[in-house]
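Subject: sequence -> structure tokens, single chain

Hey, anyone have a minute? Need the predicted structure for the following. Not urgent.
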Amino acid sequence: MSAFSRFLTLFMLIVLSCGALVTSNAGAANKNAYAMAMLKLHHPAGLQKFARSVSSPNSDNYGQYLPVSRIVKKFGARSKAARRALRYFRSRGMRATLDGAHQNVLVSMDLNQAGSYLAPSASASVARQGGPGSVPPALRGVASSLDFLDPDPEKYSTAGKFPPQPSGSPFPEGSSARPHSGTQAGCAAGQRGATAIGEPNRNFTPNQFLDA
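Reply:
Had a minute. Here:
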């Protein structure tokens, strides 16, 4: 074999190797493309109202927090319904987890699987960018809605810079955290409740609002 033939053979091997690498990487990227969905289970109402009542100093329930187990028992979906939803998605090769309050099932699926849960006439882009989906017929007795979540955190940013930290604060500048300066009874602004803080943050003390 001449020197030119050896060079040509080596060159072709390099080209073929690069092509295989590109194909492999593209396959991996497609394989890793996914959608996130949230299935809302039927559950007792009242969790938001409870959260506001225990966090408002002018409420009789202020500070009377419940352990997570009690929250789940009082406001979460029935265990049988939650297990049914988890089993449905997991048996189809998807990753499904129950949220802390046992009210929603979070599902990670690939884009091909997501196509089965699009709303009628909806574009496939909904699965990638977020929007309403469709509850599978097998779960319509245990769930009220399914929504796709936008998995791209780069699209979201804070509304603006946080106020400067007060003198002596242990938190760095730029942080949303604030030193707690209130008492168990609550600060004067919090005790006035609805007259002190406008919507949508009504019934939260200033410290709670800043720490949110």
